[in-house]
Design brief:
Elements (H helix, E strand, L loop, with lengths): L1 E3 L16 H18 L6 E4 L2 H9 L3 E4 L5 H14 L4 E5 L18 E5 L6 E7 L12 H11 L4 E3 L12 H13 L1
Parallel strand pairs: 1-2, 2-3, 5-7
Antiparallel strand pairs: 4-6, 5-6
């Protein structure tokens, strides 16, 4: 399991119109802890460049992969290499801002690439792939479609996984409203 984690002090910057710096920091940490807890059945690699995140991740019992070069694709590639060296053959990548994550066990399929899109079917919140394949990641706008194309290029089947809990990430004020509505329904 690979979880790229930004510094909690700079995470969730797009929510600055809705939340204070302290609220964004707390939200980022709470979400990341939720994702790490949901990953518990797996060996978990936290990819980070921040010493505070490094310490936080070690306290939670994860492997820490230091990635000084910014970028989500670079962080995933660095952690993928570490997992490969440790003998793992399949990776699941989850973003650290999934407040309703509870499990990732239903996302991985042998010799397949699978992905959980965000609720707008644009981004990729969770991605699973064979580590030794030629598949590469392409995070950013339109990443869900890009990952489908890259799976085809790598010669591997692609499976979209529907999971309303994993589809909710927190990037906008609308996402916060959606989270609030879902919590009221529980």
């Amino acid at each position: 399991m690979i979880i790229p984690v930004k510094s909690f002090t700079v995470a969730k910057g797009r929510l600055s119109d809705s939340l204070s710096a302290q609220e964004r920091q707390q939200l980022a940490q709470t979400c990341a802890e939720t994702v790490v807890a949901a990953a518990r059945p797996f060996s978990t690699y936290v990819a980070c460049s921040d010493p505070d995140i490094d310490e936080w991740a070690r306290r939670l019992g994860t492997h820490v992969v230091h990635c000084p070069t910014p970028g989500l694709d670079i962080a995933v590639a660095t952690a993928r290499d570490a997992a490969r060296r440790d003998g793992f053959t399949h990776a699941i990548v989850a973003h650290a801002d999934l407040p309703l994550a509870h499990t990732f066990e239903h996302v991985a399929f042998e010799n397949e690439i699978s992905a959980v899109p965000d609720r707008h079917r644009d981004g990729t919140n969770v991605l699973s792939f064979p580590i030794n394949s030629t598949f590469t990641t392409a995070y950013g706008p339109g990443s869900f479609d890009n990952h489908q194309l890259l799976a085809e290029k790598a010669g591997l089947p692609f499976r979209a996984v529907t999971d309303s809990n994993l589809e909710l990430d927190l990037d906008t004020a609308d996402d916060l409203s959606e989270l609030s509505q879902r919590k009221k329904q529980l």
